[in-house]
Design brief:
The chain is an all-alpha fold. The protein has one domain. 72% of the residues lie in helices and 0% in strands. It is built from 2 helices and no strands. It has helices at residues 15-78, 81-92.
């Protein structure tokens, strides 16, 4: 006797009941496979997004490091007396005691 045709009590199941059970198992398995595939696709899509975002952040970090280097170089030049004098002339429009500032309009 075939064990797949028996129910829990050991009685033989009708063919229609067996077919319905197979369809239910098939539907549940299909849904599980669909959900697993969907989860894999969404995970892959998220990884692509995060990779692009990481690249943008790395580029921003490189730019910030370059700006910081330029600012450090500028600070080191302003620590000397000649650097401070140049800063006063360029940014503050100041002059020495025996100098005259001429402004020419554009």
């Amino acid at each position: 006797m075939d064990a797949s045709n028996l129910n829990v009590s050991g009685k033989k199941l009708p063919v229609k009941s067996k077919t319905v059970r197979h369809i239910i198992v098939l539907l549940v398995t299909g849904m599980a496979i669909f959900q697993a595939g969907r989860a894999i696709f969404l995970s892959f899509e998220r990884q692509l997004f995060l990779h692009k975002q990481a690249q943008v952040l790395k580029e921003g970090q490189k730019q910030a490091e370059e700006i910081n280097k330029e600012l450090r170089d500028g600070l080191s030049s302003y620590r000397s007396a000649s650097g401070i004098e140049r800063l006063a002339r360029e940014r503050l429009n100041l002059a020495g005691p025996d100098e005259v500032i001429l402004r020419i309009g554009k």
